[in-house]
């Protein structure tokens, strides 16, 4: 646990240091709040979450009657933790067999890597996993997923040049027939033709539901935490198209834009199941609101 926190803190330090330096002065005055506003915006917290946090913080400062800027930092950590608390939710499997998890995300977000890490996480919990390579357009995507399947020694359902929805249907059927606990469906992050990506993903969702009436049980979006406000735009677009149940936020081990997590909480509060803190199999952690708030301000 501690190793992970250190990694996250190191990653967020670029964000954190600029926020933390706001509290090194001797007075709590308008200048402090103005500096804090700028620092939060710089960290990609967004206007709405920044306004909310400042108003909440001023209330807390007033109630506490403190005159010490250092104490204000602690109060800000409380405000951020409270804002993020609704996003802290575990991914639950076992209610359905298989639990079908559809995974979306634009190319480069870290989707394939996250699926590999998630497979390891689920296997560690004793779940049997089957992977579906529904990004049939890119040979490289299939091959990359096959590498992660190998690393985890799990089965993969794929079909060269096949129809993404058909591959997903086959994978869910195979998962049911073989009694697997989880089917993870990797989808395309970009299409080579003019075909609309969201339309393609909606079709996969519909067809998966045909294979198993209650599926998909989870629709996850993988976003790159390093893209700041852009990540929030993606959450909104994919949520509108697919009704997301959860997020995986990657690359939080090296970003100055960690504040975007606050923006998500304020503007599109989809639960954060996991955060990515590195490129290795074990670099996936469950999201903890208080720890994250503290890392942001460290
Ligand atoms: P995809 O196109 O969305 O499937 O993205 P990939 O899974 O191929 O990842 C794109 C790049 O981001 C690769 O170089 C990964 O190693 C890297 N990556 C993915 N997740 C993380 C993370 O949490 N931290 C860091 N530092 N790199 C990551």
Automatic annotation (TrEMBL):
Sorted keywords for this record are: Cell membrane, Cytoplasm, GTP-binding, Hydrolase, Membrane, Nucleotide-binding, Receptor
Q: How does it sit in the membrane?
A: Peripheral membrane protein
The terms under GO molecular function for this entry are:
GTP binding; GTPase activity; signal recognition particle binding
GO process terms (BP):
SRP-dependent cotranslational protein targeting to membrane
Name the domain of life this protein comes from.
Bacteria
Q: Record's Gene Ontology CC terms?
A: cytoplasm; plasma membrane
SUPFAM superfamilies assigned to the protein according to its UniProt record, in alphabetical order: Domain of the SRP/SRP receptor G-proteins (SSF47364), P-loop containing nucleoside triphosphate hydrolases (SSF52540)
* Signal sequence coordinates: none
Q: Which top EC class is named for this enzyme in its record?
A: hydrolase
* Role played: Involved in targeting and insertion of nascent membrane proteins into the cytoplasmic membrane. Acts as a receptor for the complex formed by the signal recognition particle (SRP) and the ribosome-nascent chain (RNC). Interaction with SRP-RNC leads to the transfer of the RNC complex to the Sec translocase for insertion into the membrane, the hydrolysis of GTP by both Ffh and FtsY, and the dissociation of the SRP-FtsY complex into the individual components.
What's this protein's name? Signal recognition particle receptor FtsY
């Amino acid at each position: 646990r501690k190793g992970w926190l250190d990694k996250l803190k190191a990653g967020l330090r670029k964000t954190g240091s600029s926020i933390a330096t706001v509290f090194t002065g001797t007075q709590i005055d308008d200048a402090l709040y103005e500096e804090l506003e700028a620092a939060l915006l710089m960290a990609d917290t967004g206007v709405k979450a920044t306004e909310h946090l400042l108003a909440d913080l001023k209330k807390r400062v007033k109630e506490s009657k403190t005159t010490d800027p250092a104490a204000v930092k602690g109060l800000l950590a409380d405000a951020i933790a409270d804002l993020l608390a609704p996003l802290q939710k575990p991914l639950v499997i076992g209610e359905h067999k298989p639990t079908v998890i559809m995974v979306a995300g634009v190319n480069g977000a870290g989707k394939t890597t996250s699926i590999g890490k998630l497979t390891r996480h689920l296997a560690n919990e004793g779940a049997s996993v089957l992977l579906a390579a529904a990004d049939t357009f890119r040979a490289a995507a299939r091959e990359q997923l096959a590498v992660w399947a190998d690393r985890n020694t799990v089965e993969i359902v794929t079909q060269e040049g096949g129809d993404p929805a058909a591959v997903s249907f086959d994978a869910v059927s195979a998962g049911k027939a073989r009694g697997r606990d989880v089917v993870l469906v990797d989808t395309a992050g970009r299409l080579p033709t003019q075909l609309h990506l969201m339309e393609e993903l909606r079709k996969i969702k519909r067809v998966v539901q045909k294979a198993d009436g209650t599926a998909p049980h989870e629709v996850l979006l993988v976003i790159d935490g390093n893209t700041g406000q852009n990540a929030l735009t993606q959450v909104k677009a994919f949520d509108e198209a697919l009704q997301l149940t959860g997020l995986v936020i990657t690359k939080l081990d090296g970003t100055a834009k960690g504040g975007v997590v606050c923006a998500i909480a304020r503007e599109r509060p989809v639960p954060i199941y996991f955060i990515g803190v590195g490129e290795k199999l074990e670099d996936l952690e469950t999201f903890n609101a208080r720890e994250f708030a503290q890392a942001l301000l460290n």
